[in-house]
Amino acid sequence: MWWWAYTHDGPGFTMFGPAHMGVIVSLLLACVLIVLARNWFQGSIRKQNLFRFGCVAIFIAGEVLLQIWYIDASAWDPSFALPLHLSSIAWIAAIFMLLTRNQTWFEITFFVGAGSAFLTIVTPDVGNYGFPHFRFFHFFITHALVIVVVVYMMAVENMQLRFRSVFRVWLYLNGYAACMFIFNLWVDGNYMYLMEKPPGPSPFDWFGPWPYYIFALQVVALFVFIGMYGFYWWFFRKFPSSVNKRSP
């Protein structure tokens, strides 16, 4: 079963190839459809619950399958296999957001989750696992779904942001990164790519060698968060019927 094999000898991944572009286009279509269908969702609590709990189930099932994949290949190791990368924090925060509809979890999922998921989908670190390998599907479905549920929570569940949440989430992220730096030293890991850059092309390459890119990315992350708030501000006013207006 080459599509499940850890040591992969099937079709490789090509950045911006047909499969990659298919993922990007599908994600854009899914987000547009959710915005267009917001009234359909808002008319039924059952539909909202089905969507929310269905997404939670997909996130959990994906992580369970990933851990089984590592274990089945005798490749599991705490230095990389634990759900501690930024992308994992994104889907974990998304689960709490979907289950609780809590403002703080929405803010974390919006800024940390959707922001990192977008960059990861555009410049993926998926190794050589091309379509239709399990890792390809797991990687892109998980990241894309984080963005989809954020759009859903804004358009359907009326979740909103305030500008100060930019700085609050930025501080949360830096605190988590500090903890992960210590944990990386303990397990000889590279969670959040704090010890070295990803092996493939990525935005990390724009900011110099280790450790300079870490400090540069702190500044970049803050400006990205501000830019994302600008997108939210535009969305808030573009689709005013989908939210209960209040001053951001």
Task: Break the fold down into its secondary structure elements and pairings.
Elements: H1 18-36, H2 38-42, H3 45-72, H4 86-100, H5 103-122, H6 134-155, H7 164-187, H8 212-238
Would you count the extended β strands for me? 0
Summed over residues and divided by their number, the pLDDT gives a mean of 90
The radius of gyration is 18 Å
Q: Which shape, going by the Cα principal axes?
A: globular
Order of helices and strands: HHHHHHHH
Number of domains: 1
Fraction in beta strands:
under 5%
Q: Oligomeric state of the chains?
A: single chain
Note the gap between the termini: 52 Å
Low-pLDDT residue intervals, each spanning 5 or more residues? 242-248
Helix content: 55-70%
SS-based class = mainly alpha
User: Given the structure, what is the number of helices?
Assistant: 8
Q: Largest sheet, described in full?
A: none
